[in-house]
Structures
1.
Amino acid sequence: MPLSSGQTGFRRRAAEVSLAAGPALFLAVLVVWPLVAVLVRSLEGVGPERVVEVLGRGSVRSVMAFTVGQALLSTVLTLALGLPVARVVARYRFPGVRVLRALVVVPFVLPTVVVAAAFAALFERYAPGWRDSLVPVLAAHVFFNLAVVVRVVGGYWAGADRRLDEAAQVLGAGPWQVFRSVTVARLGPVLAGSAVLVFLFTFTSFGIIRILGGPGRATIETEIFRYAVNRTEFDVAAVLAALQLVVVLGLASVSAAFQRRISRAQRGRRRPTAQPVGEGGWPARLWLAGALSIVTVVIVVPVAVLVQGSLRVGDRYGFDNYRRLFTTGDLLPVSAARALATSLQYALVAAVVASVVGVVAAVAVTGGSPLARPLDVLTLVPLGVSAVTLGFGYLVAFTVFDLRRSVWLVPVSHAVIGLPFVLAAVVPALRSIDPRLREVAATLGAGGVAVRRLVDWPLVRGAAVTGAGFSAAVSLGEFGATSFLSRGGDSFTAPLAVARLVSQPGAALRGQALALSVVIGVVVAFVAALIEWRRSDRVTLL
Amino acid sequence: MSRTERAGAGSVAAGSAGVESVGVESVGVQSVGTGLAGDGAGLSIRGVTVAFGEVRAVDEVSLEVAPGETVAVVGPSGSGKSTLLRAIAGLEPLVAGEIRAGGRSLAGVPVPHRDLGLMFQDHALFPHLDVAGNVAFGLRMKRWPAQRQRARVADLLELVGLAGLEHRAVHELSGGEAQRVALARALAPEPALLMLDEPFGSLDRVLREQLTAEVRRLLQELGQTALHVTHDQGEAFALADRVAVLAAGRLVQVGEPAELWRRPVTRFVAEFLGHPNLWPATVGADGRVTVAGVDLGAMSAGVGAGVGPGSEVTVVVPVTALAPAAAVAGGGTGAGGGTGALEVEVVAAGFAQGRYRVTGRWLGDDDGAPVEVVWEADEAPAAGERVRLAVRSDRVWPLDG
């Protein structure tokens, strides 16, 4: 019997598997191996009793309690403040809506050290009484993660079919009933998904805690660093990292499941139906006013204080802090400007590597390969696994060939951390391509490669550039892994410089830290704003 | 037998067996010199089966499409018509059967080398290419030189009435324009077979009818062999030389539109084509048919072919076989015998496309089959009124079994 597709089916399957093999190998070497090395290290020699002993220590327990507690608080606060903004961005059209959207998203890509510097300056100057409380940490977390809620929830909200609400109203549901039975029911998985993400990010918060946490406020993340680097108790660090890893992998798989549900829910959704604020009457104006106040207090004010602080020299204002970035002091191994140049180079390398690996992985993940699902989960791991754990893993794993001295290690670790952003942009773009386009192309004579080149690639190119931009931004601000992997000198990056400057007493150093933060922030914000400006209303995870 | 007079507009007289039953090979009578002509060209499907797990979406379908002929496959959704089309395109694997197009077997031929044109509902135009880029896609795949591509694109756009729109972005096109571009794109590489999958489904009725007529004319002019899949029998009748009815993956009947409509072989086909009057009847001697005790006269089908004297059958009475006779005033008794006139009580009357459509029920038979008739008069009878209907018994057709 003539079976036309049996043979070609097998060949296609083989091609799909080999396509998945590349990114899978990349992630195996650069993510799985270091993490496994950490796990092995935590059990090796010391034995399970030691693990139990470490976890049973009062100090470790209180660290765990604090880590979970601050993450929960941050998540609740972020959701509470993010939802009104999400609603306004999704539902209303008004002059400046794009500016508002960009304002909300930019913080997410701002380097943690920049944000930490901003909030340190803010509280020291205007609320010194709160400087040593938990408030600066929470505020910084909200500042960061507002974007997650607004993008994920708002994006879904914008595409949600408002006729469902209307249908419910016609069926006699009051506003509260509509909200409960339609809005919440549909929004449920999206809300939960974004909450899990925010929790994940704040659970693994490092730079913010290091700089703003103050004495007695340590998370698992900062403790890993402290034990590994400051106290060189590698085994304790390894136990903590292993614990961190288990929690994070669990949360990441929950998040992946939510993401699949969310992207399924988005299939066949309608065009966004935003309504001009003018038509919404006073409730719309109230919502808008609320959203604007939230964004102003949470985002605009800290940034303004950061800029103001960077310009203040003693009692007057000037550019002295910026000029000093070009000088080499005792505190930094190189000038701040030189560190920034290094960061830019790394960002370029990271963006190229992440987007190439990411696009191949995205194609493999969306294909029918048996490796698709495992690869999908694998690609999300770097998003969840803390950069600190990853950096620590590199130190533990790459002792062979002395790889950890390689100058490539820092940019490659940045590429790994940026990879999920490329996938978050490209995978939905690939999934949203109407399969009939490929079928039509095939009937018109296009083979597999031609379909990829002439149909798929042009339709995901924009998303790939977006992902590359995000990974460049992430690289520019990366702090956790770099803290472990930087050898100083040639691999001393701008965020390391900020962290070192900001943690020292002295107005001059503080001013320099703020100035460098502003420069990094401007570069990153520029990249992010470009991305935000040119991308459509397509909803992606981030 | 009243054979359909099809316009001899250069098209093909295929399936000349009138009502064809399933599996009968229709002989592709060759005519127009279109360049596609050739021995064994066109499309030949034999025993094609496509299965999704246990479900046979297409079940041993055999169908011949002569060169230059347009055949429409109609069926309700889920009948397997789109699957059949995808199987021909090579997008679904066959479990059994053989497909030949353009004179060669398609077994083992990958999709890109099948030399087919495919046109989907909602056009499926490449959003990143302009109109010219879409139309030229197949030519590009065949590595035509750029200049010939341009000329061909211009010709095709002219043909579909979109001359000069080469550089229009796809999202700026109206629904009808987009569908024309999709047609031009499918036709550009001169495919051996053009396949249309619900091509006009997303358009409004007026546009749909207009475009159907245009495509019909175009296919005839080009002598293009085409297979058209739709759930809309009206569209199929308007576009195709022959129509094939598919039910649950099986081909039930193939025939020219008029034949199919006049002589459906099963209740399913009759209902799918929209015949409202399917009445239980008794066939008497000489092929005279009696419905509810009323002798309607002789059917043209006569006696035979499984319909012997005295047999109980279901007859199809096309709405065109019924016309108002004189209205009956007051409460008349049952109808007289042998007049070919029925007396029914009006249940409702509707107005559509310039005519009344009256539904009624038999007198003295409360649970009898409904009666529907096109009422060619200035005013429709009111509900409850009794009317007499004249029946043209030569248009009445008995169903098999």
2.
Amino acid sequence: MNFFLETLLGGLLAGTMYSLVAIGFVLIYKASGVFNFAQGAMLLFAALTFVSLHEQGVPFAVALLLTVLVMIVGALLIERLVLRPLVNRSQITLFMATLGLSFIIEGLAQGLMGSQVRALDLGIDDVPLFLGPLMLSQFDLIAAATAIVLVTVLALLFNKTRIGVSLRAVADDTTAALSIGINLNRIWQIVWAVAGVVGLVAGLLWGARQGVQFSLSLVVLKALPVLIIGGFTSIGGAIVGGLIVGAAENLAEVYIGPLIGGGITPWFAYALALAFLYIRPAGLFGERAIERV
Amino acid sequence: MSLTLLHSSAPVLLVRRRLPWGLIGLLLLAFGAVPLLGNDYWLNAILIPFLVLSLAGLGLNLLTGYTGQTSVGAAGFMAVGAFATYGFLLRLPELGLPLALLGGGLISAVVGVLFGLPSSRIKGFYLMVTTLAAQFFLEWLFVKFPWFYNYGSSGTISAPGLSLFGHDLNTPVGRYLLTLVTVLLLTWVARNLVNSQIGRNWMAIRDMDTAAAVIGIGVVSYKRLAFAVSSFYLGIAGALWAFAYLGTASAGSFDINRSFQILFIIIIGGMGSIAGNFVGAAFISLLPIFLSHAGQALFGGAVDAGQLQNLQKIIFGVLIIVFLIKEPEGLIRLLGNVRQRLAHWPLRF
């Protein structure tokens, strides 16, 4: 029983790491209807920029600030050069543009900052922590706490500030938002910048876990089932989805994996997401689209 | 030539039929000049992969460009075709190459329908993620179960020998002709398919599936048919990729990057166009060669291969975005515009 609980809790905590990546998606999808495949590349870029600065001897806080600035500039450029010319085009077109964008960002990140694996030390010891009879990873706990803080900040931003209200207006009804004078381009810039910062946080945590390297950008593929289960439009859904995927993945690897040859993590989350889709075609918390002919 | 046949009782042909001289020229070139003049490097490294990628693009285009179901699992279905064809060649050698290819395609079609089942309930990005599921699941399947690659230690498959009616096809020219004939045959079928009732129904679903359902098109079954036909094409492309081009393949030859490559072929070539696949495949397969030659000429080896690859990635990304912004209908539309301009040159409309 203890082993089961440990597997479950370990999975839930790992799931918050997935949620962190998924939140970046949800932000952009909500505000602009863009399914941003480049989120993984942004995560890689942010983590690489931070590590490179830190290796040059820039202090932790300054490096963090500079990376945030870089991500904001990146968001401005993306909005100006990619999104604005593609305004009013179909969602699939925008998705494909972000595919191209992910190639550019990955190429830039590796071209400018090298492709070798970098170690990233956030000063968190990955020591086991005993909670009664259960053994948990301290690193996972801190990652989970970070996710909680991040979601709280985002919730405040969305619900209590003027910018947040305009963001929700755009997400609700773009045309109506435009007609009352909300600057759509500005909203996009803000959303992409915030997604970049979320990407930085996720990139740092994932980077500390598995080294900063190209495979970080593949984390995006881990986040897709989370989005499916939680729905594309709900930050709370991204959290719940992450927890479900993390827990189910861990349990499946331990209890189902040995029965069918093991190594099922690459696709198990997707199979789970498919099962959810059959029951709820727009995810647990997603909005169901109403169609008119 | 007059188009009005008002007095005749024969069905009126509104399209002026001319002999397609351009097509005939291309065919003469492909069947006559290329096998005679082309050297092994050209056949092996450029023409065969170009043809196979065109076929794969065609398969994906039927699903994504004509029916509007975005798929990022194309390479997974190619893997099914390759491994199934291998299985037929190995375990039922009396079938012969054409039937083994056909069987590989059919099995791939069945798998495609299976993974296309969710399309009855979900669409858009949600559906796209299910095709990703197919990609990862199939890759895992062909690594984990040695039965698929005949219990070899390396997990690779290679054709036991390509031959057709006693002719050995294991020369560059033989493999080229095998690929060419297969691709042309399937392209001809695809062209007729998209011009038929089926194709029109697919396009109606693509443009708006709710409206298509309202006018009485069986949306669910036509979507499944699209998955089946698309996977059939991809399966045969996969088998050709493994046996006519690579020679020896493994599940890793059909990873997610291959899926993206095929998606880029149809974006750059032209969604919802048959000829566009060939243009897009030519572009995608020639650009890396061109870039590496250009890099050699410009920097003379001063830039290392890794950086060149990064540069290549950036150029690819920029091109995709530029195409989406400037010419969403792809290179084929661009070529059409040029042709129209030339037809009236030096006058303009």
3.
Amino acid sequence: MRAARIPATYGLLVLLAVAALGPFAMMVSASLRPNLVYLSFPMPLIPPDLGLANYAQLFGRTIIGRWILNSAIMTLSVTALQLLTCSMAGFAFARGKFPGREALFWMLMASLMIPSTVTIIPLFLVVVKLGWANSFAGLIVPHATSIFGTFLMRQYFKTIPGDYDDAALIDGANRWQIYLRVVLPLAKPALATLGTLTFLNTWNDFLFPLVVTSSDEMRPLTVGLATLANQTGNAGFFMAGATVSFLPTFAFFLAMQRYVVRGVSLSGLKG
Amino acid sequence: MAGRVETPASAIVRSRSRWRSLRTCWTWYLFVAPSLILFLVFTLFIWAFMIYLSFQDWSLIGPRAFVGLGNYRELLANEHFWSAFRVTLVYTLIFVGPVAAISLLVAALVNQRLPLIGVFRSAYFLPVVTSISVIALVWRFILIPRAEGPLNYLIGWLGLPPQEWLIDTSLALPSVTGMQIWATAGYYMILWLAGLQSVPEELHEAARIDGAGRWAVFWRVTLPMLRPTTIFVVIIATIGALQMFGAVFLLTGGGPVRATTTVVYYVWQSAFMTYRMGFGAAASIVLFVVILIVALLQRRFLGWTEDIY
């Protein structure tokens, strides 16, 4: 009975895989067809008129290269800054003894669940007031730390035995040296998880960069792609834009899968 | 006698140790400082500013005017706000249940030790890591209203006539919902999977030995054991649904005729299309209060207790 169920299970698995991957297959396939004006079914998976003209048109007509660069600068900066600030604060909350530690920690935790979309207006106004509208500072600094990340790092540091710190203290190391040379190298799994989630959340963020940037040259890829949709062009042109935007996160996901899944279980990815 | 006398040497040692403890304290504050300063400015201050702003009438360039509860009063009398509110609630209702059910079934399916199962899990998760801009661009073509449009072609197999997915006022919101379910089900699948893997295998075996069928085991044993996960999935999905913006912005622009204008889209329009900052802030605060109430109600209604974990 169990053996008879396995082909049915695989049938269902494949059907669901077609539903999940079909739109992406269609996107890539259509992007490789220079003469495709309208997307219509049934369509061949392997295009008869294979060519890269849509991509040539995409890079010629839009500044998508600049959008990719903007996204990369924004995402890598935010990720690096969050790894630094969250691990520093997490270290202090896990190991430090200082007045106000508990009060500060619970103040941060109380705002952990506050949805970020509801504060978009005052956030925009503060960014403008700081003179950071339509700039990398505006895109990066407001997200340079995360309460979730601080919590994640603190929990991980708490699992590292304090004996390591004590041994380093006896050897004459100060707090900064313990943080950099002892604790941080031991926290690589947590840093990888946080870095992976921050990378994806920042790269895919939409509302915030939409509001903060105003010129075409400052748009990150997600927002730039949205303005692309207002242009005229044939279906293959748009699908080329979608494919170019899809590939970075796809490659990143393939490389960092393990950490993505671990992070989601900790619910650090925006649903 | 010698022990009680403050010698210069002991005073130095004491003040040095006090100085040292203060210095180590200061080091800890330095570790916390970057996060704390950012938190104070970009969370605490902007909240205070938003509340202040919600009592003001301000168009970004002109002078600010205190209007008391004027924005809130106008909001509650505004039919467009109520329409956005209704759209958001309908969307939440038709999104949360189906996405939770579908992702649970998919999780149960991939929670088996079979060759290649990891590849299938990754495939189902792929839409989750893809940006909403890419997804919306592709779905805009999937949903084209002509008979050869991908979705119309597929429903043609079932003998159904072609539909005007994003043009028909009664179909636009369900279409956006369908896309959102497709885009996010993989995320909830991972949450369910974590829950399923924490259910002890012995429970299933015991039930099977007692003669329970596959579905009976699932309904009577697995699902009750998944209650903490169920509460978590429903709350997370609801909080996300109440903040729906990107899909609507990209796919329908709130239309046709406001049929897909959600509260966050309405907030965005108020602030960044008509430049009514105070009015938009008031709408944001109302939305926040609604999210808070719904999350608390769900916790209570679904029987959240602190000892659940």
4.
Amino acid sequence: MTWKTASAGFAVLVVVAFVAVFPVVSSWDPNDVEFDLALQLPSVAHPLGTDQFGRDLATRVAVGGRTTLLIAGAALASILALGFLWGTTAALAGGVADSLLMRIVDGLLALPRLLIAIIVLVALKLNASTVPAIVFALAVAGWMLTARLVRGHMLSLTTREFVKASRAVGAGWSQIVRRHLLPNSTGILLVALLLELPTVVLGEAFLSVLGLGPPPPIATWGNIAYDGWTSHRMWELTVATLAITVFAVSANVLADGVADQLDPRRRRS
Amino acid sequence: MSLAAYIARRALWTIPLVLGVMLVTFLLMRGAGGDPFRPPEGYIGVPESYARILRDHYHLEDPWFVEFAYWVKNVFTLRFGPSLVQRNLEVADVVRHGLPVTLQLVLLAAAWAVPAGVAMGLWAGTNRGRPADLAATSIASVLLVVPVFFVVFALREYLVVDWRLLPSGWDTWRARALPVLALGLAPAGYVARIVRTAVVETMQEDYVRTAFAKGLRRPRVVWVHVLRNSLAPLLSAAIPMIALLITGAFFVENAFSVPGVSNFFIEAVRTRDYPVIMNLTAALAVVVLIANLAADVLLAVADPRIREGMKR
């Protein structure tokens, strides 16, 4: 493991620790409106200042991080599940079904994710976006690369001796998937997870900044950025952007490192 | 495969893709259930007389495949139809006035971002390991990872609002400079990183060593041998780059009050204006898929290996 990967992993841990611990030790409620305290700069009482409603920004960033990471986690779980099922089905089915399934993936990959996510949100016909709706939209917009990765991996796995041996002794495909293919895919799924982590965090931010995020007063990193955007406060937008970017970039670097670790051939560059 | 055959094949593949996207959008909007004239609580409905006009135009009384067929026909004859929410708004007007603006914005941004990115990547890749490489690579990474909404907001707040250096809007070339600059930053960084990786690999090829060995000057080797052989990875970069541009356009148009289609699209999403959403989605999808097509064709012209492999 290089120092780069290690420090990226450390940064991810720091963000997660801050998000987990800070709301507990903070003496402020993230949603308490107090206009007397509005628009303050950082101080001892408010380490990151306050927003236009007098809410403590540090607490909101931490609580918002929880919501954002919750959305990201749920979306990632759906992306991995859907991508795994789709990719495995395509690889095992082969032939026409395989190329049809992968053409659908190609077609969806050609469209911007944000556009897909917005269309899905609209199709859900909600008065306001909810957290599950955002999760669903991000998952529908984001599973295709994972499906492609999994399919490629499965195509190489199914030519291996242990899979052939299982088939020869009469194991059914569902058993082979459960006993052999899934356990042998943890590596590729981990890579997919870390690869998609920044994109779902950013996806939440993009939707929220366009005003399509969870309704106020729910704090998310994207919603804090949106508050900064609408109230013309550079400071607030900067804080939210930093949280998003530091987390996304560290996750990305970590993904590269883990991929190198899993595949020694990649390590040289 | 000849170039013409490749282009024809690639173009034909775009047609089912466009129809597929339209069908999915259509089914999503329709399959969501409910009556378009009884919107969810909190949204204002449509008077009966106007509802009749809408029903007639969109053939809402017919079976779904008839409705879909009419919609496809209307989109391709540019008779997009009326809005559900804004009574005097024709979607055709939005498309006619907004789409050229969005296209111009995106194309102008790409027009500076791609050459700038290629130059930066080439510079970094040929100076691998030197300070120039570190500088160019760092700049490219920063351009790529800083979210577009932050860049756009910072540029607007300081240059347009506070210091009044540039106007907002889209009327003059002065006003256009900032949106075009802002939109191209992330794609430039993206292209730079792709090209750098490719250049680093090409520099290690035997034919490059041979070119140096037979006494060719460095500029000739770089421009003729290295650059042209390093552009192939842009094929896989075209789709993410178009996505970056379209995604960025949403924020750029919003921040600088550019009268493009994205602003109308977001407004339609907020007011649940289904006809506007559907038609603008179709228009944007057509633009994106044609852009993909154009990128593939350009690269097939530049690199014969692509049309031979027909890689997808």
